[in-house]
Design a protein that fits this description.
The protein is of the alpha+beta class. α1 crosses α4 and α3 packs antiparallel against α4. It has a single domain, classed as 4'-phosphopantetheinyl transferase domain (Ribosomal Protein L22, Chain A), CATH 3.90.470.20. It is built from four helices and five strands. A hairpin with a 3-residue loop joins β4 and β5. The protein is globular, with a radius of gyration of 14 Å.
Length: 115
């Protein structure tokens, strides 16, 4: 497979925690499944922040514009490994690899798009 895009992002967890306090803010960015997953975790804002960073990294790595963050969904496999699903037909035939990491203060993600 050929690499056609690379994206990375880092975000402060406290920034996402403040953002999450605004009515309807999370629903504009995250799917219901992503919100439920993060809220079920001990450190929900770290999980929201790392998913936000993942969406930004994927957005940067995609070879086209005009995609909404809500169209980019981060899920976890049973193993705990993250995977990305993008709801856009332009992604047919593309593979998106993602890695996530977070601390108490920061969340980061790197995405690689292959064809």
């Amino acid at each position: 497979m050929k690499i056609i895009g690379l994206g990375t992002d880092i975000v402060e967890v406290k920034r996402i925690a403040r953002f999450a306090q605004k009515p309807g803010a999370l629903e504009r960015i995250f799917s219901k499944e992503e919100i439920a997953y993060c809220r079920a975790r001990k450190n929900e804002y770290q999980h929201l922040a790392v998913r936000f960073a993942a969406k930004e990294a994927v957005y940067k790595a995609l070879p086209f514009d005009g995609i909404a963050f809500k169209q980019i969904q981060v899920r976890n496999l049973e193993s705990g490994r993250p995977e990305v699903w993008v709801a856009d037909e332009r992604c047919n035939g593309l593979s998106v690899l993602i890695t996530l990491s977070h601390t108490d203060e920061y969340a980061t993600a790197v995405a690689v798009v292959q064809q």
